[in-house]
Amino acid sequence: MTEEIKVPEMSESTVEATVGIWHKQVGDTVKEGDPLLELETDKVNLDINSPVDGTLTTLDKQTGDTVIEGQILATISTEENSSEKTEVNSREPEKEENLVKEIVDITPIAKTIAQKNNIDISNIKGSGKEGKITKEDVENYIDKNNNSSKMIEPSSEKSNEFESENSSETRIKLSRRRLTIAKRLTEVQQETVMTTTYNEVDLSKIIEIRKNFQTKFFESYNVKLGFMSFFVKAVINSLIKFPEINSELQNQELILKKYYDIGIAVSTDEGLVVPVLRDAINKSFSEIEISIGELATRARKKLISLEELQGGTFTITNGGIFGSMMSTPILNPPQVAILGMHRIIERPIAKNNNIVIAPMMYLAVTYDHRVIDGSSAVQFLGHIKQLIEDPNALLINL
Questions:
Q1: Of 137, 132, 99, 102, nearest in space to 119 by CA
Q2: Digit-coded pLDDT (tens) for 184-212
Q3: Is residue 373 annotated as a catalytic residue, yes or no?
């Protein structure tokens, strides 16, 4: 029998992918779960594994090819290979230097990374099925034991950096992911009517709450009380009041969503990704903080799955962690709005006819003006400001 390996279902905003590294070639024997290739999207790299035992018979797509959902990538023959059985029976004993291969089970990509970094795989504890060493195990081992040097990743391409004719310049070929991101951002600019409204918010009361409850909160939940949980709560409260902002435009219909899956933008070495905080309306402050921490860690370790990046209804991004004082966030389609947080700055403001120093932050909401009126966007942001400045309605579950 023949098993077709197809491009899996992707997110609603990811319509295509690029074929990356092939870990197997035609004629190679594969086992169920063995990595066959990587697919690169604008969000994440996907490992495509073999669903069956067999022999790889065709490669229908090559590295660099652009593919869409459902296209055939390769085929695997599941017929038993008698010559292989004979070879196994007549095989001479392995040399001592190869005994580790019999003892240690490791994925092909993990093995390649280990070899390129001169890693003794017998020192690595596998986290995969039956102790199999995965790519992430090797990466974690390198992080722990060799932080001063950069890990060498396997690649099917030559270096993308080269000197130009002008010796004072260096030209760097854009990665496939960066090209895809560029294409997506251009499409968003061309296909939506993005408009941004701004406001500023006084964080004095939230900072006071964090100061008063931080120790008890950490003792209770083993996680710090951050700012993001307050903003997630305030955003959801505001989305309930302005349902058209928690929506999606499909053809000539506006789909109002009565669930609140909030995307949290996370910066990684390979670009920005947006893991989704599911059912955020029913999460406590501690659950929000824990979930965000776990999602961010998984994203930065390249363990995030495509499913965890799908289906968000609204996104929050925080440029303040990089020192940004003000910016214009870009929509994350098919969502119709996004909130941008920024750096907290102590500065003088007028309060109760007095000049006081307060911790202030600029907020920005970018929205699709095709479906959201300016008045709604301004009121939506104003309601977030109101809740952050007077957070009594936002309960902390201690």
A1: 137
A2: 889 999 999 999 999 999 999 999 999 99
A3: yes
